[in-house]
Design brief:
Layout: H1 10-27, E1 31-36, E2 41-46, H2 53-73, E3 81-85, E4 89-96, E5 100-107, H3 112-137, H4 140-150, H5 154-160
Antiparallel strand pairs: 1-2, 1-5, 3-4, 4-5
């Protein structure tokens, strides 16, 4: 599965967002984001108002890429998770299904151990959901959607952006 190739419907986003909300509730997190390795936000839940999710996704993808490069320098093959500890707020970043990245924002109201446990459980469910979406995308639905997208003209795009 390549998360960058996923075509998410509103139903898919709601499903992934629901899984992220359960994670927030179970881990006492403030917000959770699911992003791909290219920095695209796939879903979000929790206290996301005021958070620049696009920047968070891009910086998370870059941070994980940098950590992976560092790990290769010391002989490791991969990085599974990162923990950014601030004075009051923390981020826990975990790779899901090799292509997606789960970010949980939490504070001192919860423990890192609880976060790790809940993220591990949520990662399995999210990986399963992403696999189902990818399998669906590789079937006739993807072909039908691509046909529909190929009908969009430059005039349609101009009208969309009011040029």
């Amino acid at each position: 599965m390549a998360a960058a190739d996923l075509i998410l419907t509103g139903k898919d986003e709601a499903r992934l967002g629901g899984l992220l909300q359960v994670l927030c509730d179970d881990a006492r997190g403030r917000a959770a984001f699911l992003v791909d390795r290219y920095g695209r936000v796939l879903a979000a839940a929790g206290e996301t108002v005021g958070v620049d999710a696009t920047s968070l996704a891009a910086l998370t993808a870059g941070s994980l890429a940098a950590a992976c490069s560092l790990s290769h320098l010391v002989g490791e093959n991969a990085v599974r998770s990162l923990h950014h500890e601030g004075e009051k707020e923390d981020l826990f970043i975990s790779v899901v299904a090799e292509e997606a990245i789960l970010v949980l924002h939490f504070n001192r109201q919860t423990s890192l151990g609880l976060v790790r446990l809940r993220v591990r459980n949520a990662s399995r469910q999210i990986a399963s959901a992403l696999t189902e979406i990818a399998e669906r995308d590789s079937s006739q639905d993807r072909a039908a959607l691509q046909e529909e997208l190929s009908r969009i003209t430059d005039t349609d795009i101009d009208n969309l952006f009011a040029y």
